Amino acid sequence: MARPLITGIHGGYDIDLRRSAANGVRLLGHLIDISDGRAALAPDLEENLRKGDQAFDDFRREVDDYVSRTGIDVPQPQSDQSHAYTTGATEAPSMIDVRAAAIRSVIWATGYALDFDWVELPIFNERSEPVHRRGVTPAPGIYFLGLSWLHKVTSAFLCGVGQDARYLAERIAEEPR
Known about the structure:
alpha+beta, three-stranded antiparallel beta sheet
């Protein structure tokens, strides 16, 4: 199930992935396989974006229904906060050569359910939990972000992951090139 992408940062706003793409973020389908330095990607980007849009619409509708049902007093949204999906190309490659793309590190965001059974690296304890300190694993170039209690109670929440992301970005920048 897709979750709406919203944040409370800077007064709160929705996160429009297509707008992010228009501003330079590269969106991809989900990872299928990695072999010989190449990442195979599913052709499901547009489908996942549509699911995200629908989840956001459903969420807004539920909030609006709750406000109507309870009669609580809430501020009216400002015109720039109304949700209109950005349009634009969402073509994504089916394969990426990791070396040619100069990808040195991967930060894996797994969402709400942990399942690392498919990761065959010596970075897990006997309970299959990642071994890390503030998201930094013993394996060079392998990091975790968004885990519960990565550093604080808010580590697994969109509103709190920023501090952990900054910390990891600093550690990644310190890596020898």
